[in-house]
Amino acid sequence: MGGPLHLKSLLVHLADEGERAGKLYLELRDKLLRFFIWSRCPFPDELADEVLDRTARRLDEGEEVVNLHSFVFGVARLVRREALETHARRESKHREMAAASLSTTQGEPHDSAALCLEKCLGKLPPEARALILDYYAGEARDRNRVRLAAQLNISSHALRNRALRLRKTLTACVATCMQKDRR
Amino acid sequence: MSEPSGADIRRYLLGQLSDPEREQLEQRLFEDAAFDAAVQDAELDLLDDYARGRLSESEKKHVEELLATPDQQLKLRVAQAMAAWPVRRREPGSWPLRVAASVAVVAALSALWLGWNHSQLRSELQAQKSLSPAGAGVQASLSLVAPATRSSHSRPQFSISPTAQVLKIEAPAEPDATEVWVAIESSGRGRVFQAGPIRRTGGGVLVVWVPAAVVADGEHELLLLGGQPDAGELIAAYPFAVSRR
Questions:
Q1: What residues of chain A, 26 to 55, have a C-beta less than 8 Å from chain B?
Q2: According to DSSP H, which parts of chain B are helical?
């Protein structure tokens, strides 16, 4: 692992200003995490950190990087290939664990999540609550979203970003609420 | 693959793209934030479809492969709760008493909501006045009648103009229901509107003005409540359906 010195090179490459660099770093890590999850790799958190670490080290060694995101993508592909090749046994074990964990989740009553959802929806401003319920309504999803964007007079991209932000807020609220319920 | 479509993104998430197609899509994922957001959105749709039982066995299996981390499992829990939310909310007595304890919070939010509704309604009415003094095209009237029984399937259908901005809804009220709260609950969306207290007119009818935007095409129920909206006794329910033509 590269450690804080390497991380500093990456942060400097992401943005001049510290706070903004930190935000971009977290966004990049989230993106990598999704990449490994969608690639069905075992231990996606570890792999995301490995990519960031290797990238930071290469930058520290003076590698010329024109497009950081393309560079990171290249490193991520390499790390994915290595992970899938060399950790086949580990992956198989992990999937068994994930499957076991999933079946536990499905077997549990969903009351806690449902109650928390109710609470968290209640915390949203009414227009935000209406938007998220409408946007993610099960029926006629595409038509619904076109209508919603027209009603709000915003583009479908802006509507999607708004809905995504709300869904993340809602999910974080449900997670906190479920943790409190467990205590 | 040129510009990845929504179907391509879904196939990517289901692990069904060829290697070159996948790499092309992934490159875009890293370089285009809007595209990344589209894929995240498609993932949530996929989880929602999983939660609503809309996937084939093989698709379900592929989605389950995406659930290897606690965060991903949490996303599914939320999707499952959202899928069950409108149904559970409407089942009488299905909510434990814990929900009742949150009534105070909900009531406070309702007051905010009510304020929002009123200001919305005011702006709608203002829009109505400015668009057409006679109200034609911006107002639609719905006269509701009580169903034979609560479980009756009779549901009057109303066709309203797509340009209607305000709905005038009239419903009969019992003589003792001189002052009530009203709420509208929509299929798949839960409660979309509430207002009150509203006074019964001399003719025994309640008149409610509702922004048309909150009543989407589909099935709804107008509820008359004998007290505060989240704790009041249900006096009557008037099912109706709306379509815009």
A1: 31, 34-35, 37-38, 40, 42, 44-45
A2: 6-13, 19-31, 33-51, 57-64, 70-90, 97-101, 103-131
Q: How many CB atoms lie within 10 A of CB B97?
A: 6
Which of the two residues, B223 and B43, has the higher pLDDT score? B43
Tokens of B84: 């069950």
**Span between the terminal Cα atoms of chain A, in Å:** 35
Q: What is the pLDDT of residues A126-152, one digit of tens each?
A: 888 888 988 988 677 888 898 889 988
pTM of the model: 0.56
Chain B residues touching A101 at Cβ < 8 A:
73
CB contact under 8 A, B77 and A44: no
A130/B127: higher pLDDT: A130
* B89 vs B102: CA distance, rounded Å: 14
pLDDT digits (tens, 9 = 90+) for B149-200: 555 557 888 888 887 767 788 888 776 666 777 888 888 777 777 776 777 6
The secondary element (H helix, E strand) that includes residue B171 is: strand B166-172
Under an 8 A CB cutoff, do B26 and A34 touch? Answer: no
**ipTM, 2 decimals?**
0.78
Cis peptide before B20 (omega within 30 of 0): no
User: What's chain A's length in residues?
Assistant: 183
Buried b (16+ CB within 10 A) or exposed e, B11-31: bbbbeebeeeebebbbbbbbe
B116 close to B200: Cβ distance less than 8 angstroms: no
Q: Mean pLDDT for chain A?
A: 82
